[in-house]
Amino acid sequence: MKEEKGNIDLNKIPKKDLYQAPEGYFEALPDNILQRIDEEENGKERKFGVQVNWKMIGYAAAASIVLLVSVLIGFQHPKDDTVSAADLLAEVPTADLVLYLQYSEIDTYEIIEATDIEDLADPLVGAGDLADPQLDDADMELLYEQYGISPDENLQMF
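Predicted structure:
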């Protein structure tokens, strides 16, 4: 009959000596140890367990120097490239924005809700020199000539 795996009797397993020490090994062991100690004390230097790997120390020193130099360069040249969303949006061509709005799922009402009404009240806000143009007489004459009007006519805007 087969015994179940969990019910193995260890006393029934035959015992074998797999490893054997050479004859007289244990009797000569203390003498061998004392002989080695005497040899080290009499003429040989003692070797300690810690050995220095100079190649690895060199690599670590080189990496440390590279790290130190890169940190110093980073602190000397701080990055101050903060760009606002308005600056990024100003770089996008108007035609691209119009195309994006045409083909997107954004509704006109959503655009109106997201727009600041106060900016729409004065169209020249943020226009810089356009708010108060400084034209000299030569430029004014050129404009009169281009549009076929005379400086004496009463001009009405809008």
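Summary: The helical segments are 25-42, 54-76, 85-91, 94-103, 108-114, 117-121, 137-147.
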